[in-house]
Amino acid sequence: MKQLSLMIIFLFALAILTHAQNERKFVRQGNKYYGAALKDTTKIDSTLFNKAEIEYRKALDKKPTDPKWNFNLSNSLYKQMKFEESAEKFKELSELATDKVEKSHALHNMGNSLLMNNKLDESIEAYKQALRNNPKDLETKYNLLYAMNLKKKQEEEQKKQDKNKDQDKDKDKDKNKDKNKDQDKKDQDQQKQDQQQQQQPQNKISKQNAEQMLQALETQEKKTQEKVKKVQALKAKSKQVEKDW
User: Is residue 52 part of a domain?
Assistant: First the structure.
């Protein structure tokens, strides 16, 4: 009975060891891909970093809380420029870390991810938190100063753009004022002309012109009367025919 119990314990221990070896196999393969991608410094080999990510995820499926493997996964995401995901992963690691140096490393990399995603305020805060945990970290100090200077430059550039916009608005206002002045002058000139015309004596219609106009009106009236008579005659004839029928 004792031998059977020892055999069960041995098999259980062997299964755990085999399981752990499988996990480490994924990590070793991930590290292999990661290292190969780092060798060529002239370009970012996102394909190899992606393969490393896949292997690290396989290992983490077996052991999700392992801090080193999670750190490797976060780095592989960062190298693929998946900055949103890497920032979130490094944030999780910083919250789980109990050692101050490890927490500082996670916050430093979180700051890098945020900086690369142009989230300057958040990256500055992450670097500050990293330095609170590890005040002697020179690299974090440098990155913090870099992010602060970058923010300052962006703010200065924004001020210039706003100033230029205001100047353009002022120019447009001046143009509109000039246009309005020109239009007001034209309106005043036109008004003066109208007043002058009203003040001038009206030309009287000559006797000859008056007679011609009256003749034209009489002629038109005669034609109209003739048309009316014709229409009335046709109507009378029509009625008479209808009665006989």
Answer: yes
pTM tops 0.85: no
> For residue range 70-89, what is the model confidence (pLDDT) as tens digits?
999 999 999 999 999 999 99
* Percentage of the chain modeled with pLDDT above 70: 68
Residue at 119 is within a domain? yes
Nearest 5 degrees, angle CA 32-CA 37-CA 43?
175
CATH of the domain at 29: 1.25.40
Q: Which two tokens stand for residue 100?
A: 């101050």
